[in-house]
């Protein structure tokens, strides 16, 4: 809608030209001129109004994209105690909610686990969740088995399982939580177990995710982009389809792609650059979360520093996810099968 201030400016413009213009809905009335001058004045007014409307619409779309990109700032998060009956305290808040994407992506939370703080063991029966820590360590529990994980790591808690996390260090640990469901409804059942002092397995007895740059490989289209599927579709029971790790070298870009049946949530682990969604470009930096919904065309470009991204893909429904998982190209290949199936 054209704002009243701009309409007023156009009125003043026409007044300065000796015209008296009235704006009644979409009708333009001009008086005090010959018939030909009136027609010319009306046409000019309409063109100016249309131009202004298009400019405002373009600005509004860009502002809309920028408003959807959220930035992590621990100072703006809430301090919470005994989360799911866990130990100590932590700070966190939402970067994305169930309203962010049209798929069954429920939330992306970001925060810190304070020393001696954690999240108690709890079940999810209709959704899946994954805790992640960034370049640090924490005690992860899945289904009653606990291991100390180090680095930028995560442990997906598949539907029908329980999980927990605990910070046994003497400093804050940067933490993330991602949740995807069979619907938009979140569920949890607390066990009243904070896992403090739990016995630990040297080798984790559950699925883990490691985002290590050394594991990245050149993307299919080459260039300055490296990518790796950190978690494949077979890991998840819900429409959650994958977690990818991507690194774009300075000046590099991903090219433009669109996924009709998949939404994606991007998180900037490090670096800075820009994102373009449906033709609108916004600068991004470490700590930003960028939603890309079904069918939206997107591209990412690195700035002066490498742009490192974590990408969470969610299918539009379970049928689409199952079809995605049935395509071998979307799964991490198992080298054992290649060896066994090699002709002899």
Largest sheet: 10 strands, antiparallel
Structural class by secondary-structure content: alpha+beta
Quick check: average pLDDT? 88
CATH topology of the largest domain: the name is Jelly Rolls
CATH class category of the largest domain: Mainly Beta
The end-to-end span amounts to 71 Å
Strand-and-helix sequence, N→C?
HEEHEEEEEEEEEEEEEEEEEEEEEHH
Radius of gyration: 26 Å
Extended strand count: 23
Write the layout of secondary structure elements.
Elements: H1 4-16, E1 20-24, E2 27-31, H2 35-68, E3 70-71, E4 78-81, E5 89-96, E6 105-113, E7 118-124, E8 127-142, E9 145-157, E10 161-166, E11 173-181, E12 189-193, E13 209-210, E14 217-218, E15 225-231, E16 240-248, E17 257-258, E18 262-270, E19 272-277, E20 280-285, E21 288-292, E22 297-302, E23 307-315, H3 318-325, H4 335-340
Antiparallel strand pairs: 1-2, 3-21, 4-5, 5-6, 6-11, 7-10, 7-12, 8-9, 8-10, 8-11, 9-13, 14-15, 15-16, 16-23, 17-22, 18-21, 18-23, 19-20, 19-22
In short:
The chain is of the alpha+beta class.
Q: How would you explain this protein's 3D organization?
A:
This protein has three domains: 4-68, no CATH class; 73-210, Sandwich (Jelly Rolls); 215-340, Jelly Rolls. 18% of the residues lie in helices and 44% in strands. It has helices spanning 4-16, 35-68, 318-325, 335-340; strands at residues 20-24, 27-31, 70-71, 78-81, 89-96, 105-113, 118-124, 127-142, 145-157, 161-166, 173-181, 189-193, 209-210, 217-218, 225-231, 240-248, 257-258, 262-270, 272-277, 280-285, 288-292, 297-302, 307-315. The longest helix is centred in the N-terminal third of the chain and has 34 residues, at 35-68. The chain has 344 residues and is of the alpha+beta class. It has four helices and 23 strands. Mean pLDDT is 88; it is low at 16-30 and 56-62.
């Amino acid at each position: 809608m054209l704002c009243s201030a701009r309409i007023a400016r156009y009125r003043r413009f026409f007044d300065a030209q000796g015209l008296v213009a009235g704006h009644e809905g979409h009708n333009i009335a001009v008086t005090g001129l010959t018939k030909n001058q009136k027609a010319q004045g009306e046409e000019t007014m309409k063109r100016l109004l249309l131009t202004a409307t298009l400019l405002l619409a373009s600005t509004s779309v860009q502002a809309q994209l920028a408003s959807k990109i959220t930035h992590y700032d621990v100072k703006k998060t809430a301090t919470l105690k005994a989360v799911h009956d866990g130990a100590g305290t932590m700070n966190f808040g939402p970067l994305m909610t169930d309203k962010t994407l049209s798929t069954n992506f429920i939330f992306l939370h970001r925060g810190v686990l304070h020393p001696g703080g954690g999240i108690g063991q709890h079940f999810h029966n209709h959704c899946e969740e994954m805790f992640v820590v960034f370049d640090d360590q924490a005690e992860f529990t899945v289904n009653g088995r606990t291991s100390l994980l180090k680095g930028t790591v995560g442990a997906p808690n598949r539907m029908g399982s329980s999980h927990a996390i605990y910070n046994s260090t003497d400093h804050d640990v940067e933490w993330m939580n991602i949740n995807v469901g069979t619907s938009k409804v979140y569920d949890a059942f607390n066990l009243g177990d904070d896992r403090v002092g739990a016995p630990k397995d040297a080798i984790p007895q559950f699925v883990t995710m490691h985002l290590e740059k050394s594991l990245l490989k050149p993307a299919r289209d080459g260039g300055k982009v490296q990518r790796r599927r950190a978690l494949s579709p077979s890991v998840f029971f819900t429409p959650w389809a994958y977690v990818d790790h991507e690194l774009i070298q300075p000046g590099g870009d991903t090219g433009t792609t669109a996924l009709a049946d998949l939404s994606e949530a991007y998180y900037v682990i490090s670096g800075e650059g820009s994102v373009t969604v449906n033709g609108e470009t916004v600068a991004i930096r470490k700590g930003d979360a960028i939603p890309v919904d079904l069918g939206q065309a997107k591209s990412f470009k690195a700035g002066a520093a490498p742009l490192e991204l974590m990408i969470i893909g969610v299918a539009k429904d379970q049928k689409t996810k199952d079809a995605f998982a049935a395509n071998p190209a979307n799964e991490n290949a198992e080298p054992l099968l290649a060896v066994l199936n090699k002709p002899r």
